[in-house]
Amino acid sequence: MNGTEPSAAEAVESHVRTFFGGHPVEAVDVDPGAGRRDVLAALRVLVVGPGPRGDGWAYVTAGCWDAAQVDGHGPEFVMTANVRDERFVELMAMTAYYHCGGHPLGPAHSLPIGEPWVPGSACDHLLISLPYLHGPGLEHCPLPRGHARILWALPVTAAEIGFRRAHGHEALEELFDEAAILPTDPFRASVV
C-alpha cells in the first residue's frame, strides 16, 4: 500500500458516508476485548442516523474485510434499528468477531445472539442476507485492493431459523415478504 491509498476500512467508511449522504455518521472505535484484538485490530462500527434515505438507524462494520478477506473479497455487515443504542454497536462487533474468528458468514448463514436482540424481543439470532433495505448501492463497496460486500444482519427468531433449516432461505424470505415485517421492530411477531 502506498502512502496515499486509503486502508480498506477507510474506503468502507467513505463508501458508507457517500451512500448515506445527508445522514449523520459517527465512527465508533470498538475494542473487541482481550484475545480478540489480534483478530480484529482495527474494527470500527459506523453509526448512521436518520436522514434522507430513511428514519431508522444503520450500524455498519468497517474492519472485517481487513481481517478476513480472501483474494481481495470479503464482507462487512449492516444492521438496522429504530433507535441509537450502544447495544447494536456491540452486536455488530460480535458479528464481526464471529465471522473473522473462524465462522465465515455469507448470505443465508445465521448466528445465535445468545440473548434477545433487545430485552423482551423474541429475536435471538441474526440472519445474514442481502441488504434489501438499502439495495446494491450499499452492498457493493469497491476497495483499493478488492471489493467488500456489505451484508445485512437481520434479527430473527429461533423458530424462523428452524424454518430456514427445514425449508430454505428463500422460503423464509417469502414469509417475511408476505408478513410485511418491519425489520427494525424488535418486538415483531415471528412469521413461523
Helix percent reads: 25-40%
Quickly count the helices. 6
Low-confidence stretches: none
Distance between the termini: 49 Å
Mean pLDDT rating: 93
- Which structural class fits the helix and strand makeup? alpha+beta
Shape: globular
Largest sheet: 8 strands, mixed
Q: Which value, in Å, is the CA radius of gyration? A: 16 Å
Instruction: Report the β-strand fraction as a percent range.
Output: 25-35%
Total strands: 8
Give structural notes.
By secondary structure, the protein is an alpha+beta fold. It has one domain. Strands 1, 2, 3, 4, 5, 6, 7 and 8 form an eight-stranded mixed sheet that branches. The radius of gyration is 16 Å and the shape is globular. The model has no long low-confidence stretch (mean pLDDT 93).
Quick take:
This protein has helices at about 10-20, 65-70, 85-100, 135-140, 160-165, 170-180, and strands at about 25-30, 45-50, 55-60, 75-80, 110, 125-130, 140-145, 145-155.
Q: Which terms would index this structure?
A:
192 residues; alpha+beta; 8 strands; globular
Task: Record the SSE blueprint.
Layout: H1 8-19, E1 25-29, E2 44-48, E3 57-62, H2 64-68, E4 73-81, H3 86-100, E5 110-112, E6 123-129, H4 136-139, E7 140-143, E8 146-157, H5 158-167, H6 169-179
Parallel strand pairs: 4-8
Antiparallel strand pairs: 1-2, 2-3, 3-4, 5-6, 6-8, 7-8
Helix pairs in contact: 5-6
